[in-house]
Amino acid sequence: xxxxxxxxxxVIGHKNPDTDSICSAIAFSNLMxxxxxxxxxxxxxxxxxxxxxxxxxxxxxxxxxxxKLDVHxxxxxxxxxxxxxxxxxxxxxxxxxxxxxxxxxxxPIVNADGGLLGVIAVRDIAMANMDFFDxxxxxxxxxxxxxxxxxxxGVLISGEEDMVVKKGRITIGASNVASIRENFIEDDIxxxxxxxxxxxxxxxxxxxxxxxxxxxxxxxxxxxxAKESGCILxxxxxxTYTTARLLTQSIPVSNYMKTDVLVFEPSTQIDEVxxxxxxxxxxxxxxxxHGRVRGLISKRxxxxxxxxxxxxxxxxxxxQCVDGYEDAxxxxxxxxxRIGDIETTGPILFRNVPVGCTATILTDMYHEMGVEIxxxxxxxxxxxxxxxxxxxxxxxxxxRDRNAxxxxxxxxxxxxxxxxxxxxxxxxxxxxxxxxTVYHNDLKILRSGDLRIAIxxxxxxxxxxxxxxxxxxxxxxxxxxxxxxxxxxxYIATSIRDQSSxxxxxxxxxxxxxxxxFKTAPGRFGQGVRIKGxxxxxxxxxxxxxxxxxxxx
Length: 553
Fold this sequence. Notes:
The chain is of the alpha/beta class and 553 residues long. It is built from 20 helices and 22 strands. It is elongated, with a radius of gyration of 37 Å.
């Protein structure tokens, strides 16, 4: 099975991704693709990567994963009926034949570049047939001769296929010559039988077009007269009645197409599609991709919706998931945090281990599945562990994390502590960064009852960078309440060397909650409060915060 025909599964971390979420998405995708199977796993990201992660990816030669901010079901997830459309000069009969062949009720009409001009439906062709009694319909519709030939199964004897009928009424001249002469008007389109005399008189009278029916040949003398007079001469095996009926089907579809058309793009969300389809009575809707018609969808296509498939790494809470996750099918979760509030419709791969980093779990999975850990993969896995455990200083760090990091560092050819210092220095560089960027560098949203809580964290080796980050965030954090629609907002500025944090806060309950849940002191730079020994958001700050909030009810 080739790569294009395989089902693609997105492996994605949380919003505001950190090094663990990005590196784990890459490592898990690599693991599953190397293990084989019917699917292709693609690492993705739910936000902009930070400087630390960029340093790691560059150091070990990995591309930044594809940005995927939204996984809502879209038109592109439907089985689109591929149909590039017909030209406006196409005859009604040819359009009907195409509909019959492809079992469609509607066809898009496009220009030379594939852009949509309008649509025509079976009902429009049926209405066009009611114009059978309008003798001037061909001239009014500017019908190309080639359309007439196709519709009546005709053979062109005199004239050119590119010629267009611009004058003349349709007249049947199957009776005697006297009757033809009596009823003839200049430039008429005469439908005659296989009588040579009738054919000759029709040409001599100055008909703009003569259609000789029930015949497989036309006399050479009549043919020559037609060429000399500029008369379009056509022969057909059909009788005069059938030919007259079929003539109206040679009219170009542009004369009956609907131009006020509702269209969708591949990126249009299915909720919008459903709403639109519920309000109108159209059968089919064109799908426009980069200005060109790609195909058609109908209400029936909604039944074939193929949900996007996800593997979540480094998170398992709704508030941290990529937007639209509820429209997707979650196939698995690999995480080291508390079990959150995500529900699935069926059993999934779920691996949740109390270690300091998702990358530690993945290291075990590589061993279990017998897949080689290359130096590059070892490098990003080790980086993730060093980042999440603050180079083993975090209380979340376990012996399994230390063992995994030591093994991975050996494969990658790096020294853990030296590399960690380089990585942290690259990550904490605030040159040119705004307060908003600093705050959202590592942000997670939690819920406690009816409260939404924003908790961001920054880790710093340098006291100067720590102070600069606090100064920036302290002027911005009040805005977080509005921009993130939260009740409480916190920023944990952690000193890796001191293994303590200053916490900047916003929200009416924020300060009292901190004082009740932690032993606080004035912040080092006059910003917020200082909590000695606080380095882990997951294992220290969140449990202490939630404990106080739950006591309050």
